[in-house]
């Protein structure tokens, strides 16, 4: 896995991480409107955590023993939303579209392959593991700031 290339792209956008998150969510909700009710009305607390997840994966993706626990917990926090592997893949596809646009000429076929590999071999399987583990482990409720109207229908 070419984690160095993933890190290079992510670090190259350092001053624009938050700027990248806004169009990501806008496009996600545009393509998949059913996801919007799953998110809190204010994304102010959610976006920095999403950026931290990508920072962690881009810097430590070649250390799955470190990233696995983080992504597993992220998956557990999403359990209440009854998400599938396809839902995770939808988010991945939208994120890769947006990061490619923000990266401009720095985005290459090799970048796309590296990011896809990080998602497909680590982020998504580890999140799905967290989603399914909640059947066997105590559930982690979303943080109060993350609770959407949809979440309250499950508790």
Describe it.
The protein has 155 residues and is an all-alpha fold. The chain contains seven helices and no strands. The protein has helices spanning 3-12, 17-31, 46-60, 64-77, 85-103, 109-133, 149-152. Helix 2 (17-31) packs across helix 5 (85-103) and helix 4 (64-77) packs across helix 6. The longest helix is centred in the C-terminal third of the chain and has 25 residues, at 109-133. The radius of gyration is 15 Å and the shape is globular. The N and C termini lie far apart (40 Å). The relative contact order is 0.19.
Please write out the topology.
Layout: H1 3-12, H2 17-31, H3 46-60, H4 64-77, H5 85-103, H6 109-133, H7 149-152
What proportion of the residues is helical, as a percent range? Answer: 55-70%
Poorly predicted runs are 149-155
Assign the structural class, choosing from mainly alpha, mainly beta, alpha/beta, alpha+beta, or little secondary structure.
mainly alpha
Order of helices and strands: HHHHHHH
Shape: globular
| Proportion in β-strands | under 5%
Number of strands: 0
What is the overall pLDDT average? Answer: 83
The tally of helices reads 7
Radius of gyration: 15 Å
Short description:
This protein is mainly α and 155 residues long.
Task: Please name the defining characteristics of this protein.
single chain; 155 residues; 7 helices; 66% helix; 0% strand
């Amino acid at each position: 896995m070419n984690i160095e290339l993933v890190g290079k792209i992510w670090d190259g956008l350092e001053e624009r991480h938050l700027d990248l998150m806004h169009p990501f969510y806008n496009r996600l909700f545009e393509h998949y409107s059913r996801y919007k009710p799953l998110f809190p009305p204010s994304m102010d607390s959610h976006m920095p955590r999403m950026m931290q997840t990508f920072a962690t994966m881009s810097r430590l993706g070649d250390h799955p023993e470190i990233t696995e626990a983080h992504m597993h917990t992220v998956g557990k926090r999403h359990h209440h939303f009854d998400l599938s592997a396809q839902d995770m893949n939808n988010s991945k596809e939208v994120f890769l579209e947006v990061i490619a646009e923000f990266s401009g000429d720095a985005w290459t076929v090799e970048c796309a392959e590296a990011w896809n590999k990080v998602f497909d071999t680590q982020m998504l399987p580890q999140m799905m593991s967290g989603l399914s583990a909640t059947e066997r482990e105590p559930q982690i409720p979303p943080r109060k700031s993350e609770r959407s109207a949809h979440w309250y229908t499950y508790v």
